[in-house]
Amino acid sequence: MKDTYKTITKSSEGIYKDKGSKFIALAFPVADEEEAKTILSQIRKEYYDAHHHCYAWALGYEQENHKFNDDGEPSGSAGKPIWGQIRSFELTNILIVAIRYFGGTKLGVRGLIDAYKGAAQDAIENNKIVTKTIRDYYSIYFDYPSMNDVMRIMKEFDLPQHKHDFGISCRIDFSIRKNETEKVLSQFALLRETKLKFLHTS
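^ that's the sequence the OP posted. Answer follows.
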C-alpha cells in the first residue's frame, strides 16, 4: 500500500504571456476544501480587475477530491489544463488559481490550453515539491508497570511521541507510518492493561 504523497511547501507564482494576454498562476498548499475556497475568494478580491479566475485543486492522498473550473473561458480550455499539470507532477493538497488579463486578441481554444498549462507549470516549477509520509496518530493509555513494555515497542518501531501525560496513569500520543500500523498495533495488543485510541490520519 502506498503511504506517501507529493505536495508543495509554499505559495508560488507562474507567468505566461501571449498576444498581449497575461496569465498569472498562483499555487498554494491547502489542507482541505474550505481553505481552498477561502484562498480562491481572496484571490478574486485581490485581482478583481482580471477577466477570469480559473482554478483547479486536488485534495487527499490519492487526489480523490479534485475540482477544476473554467470561469467563463471555453469549456476545457482553462481548468482542465491546470488540473492536468497537478496530475502530471503527481501533486495533492494543492490549489492553483490562474488569473487572465485579456490583451485584446483571441487566442483560440488551443492557445488558451497552452497558456493555462504553461502558467500552471511555471508556478509548480517555482515551488518546492516534497514527499510526505502518511501517518496514523494514536493515544495509548497504560499504568506504570507497563511502562517498560510500551517504551520497548516505541523504540523498536521508532515511533515519534507528540504528547504525553504521566499522572496517576500514563498516556502517550504517538504516530505510526501507515504501512506499519497493523504490525505496531498487533504488538501493543499483546500487552495487558493498555488501551489504544485512534486520533486521526495525516
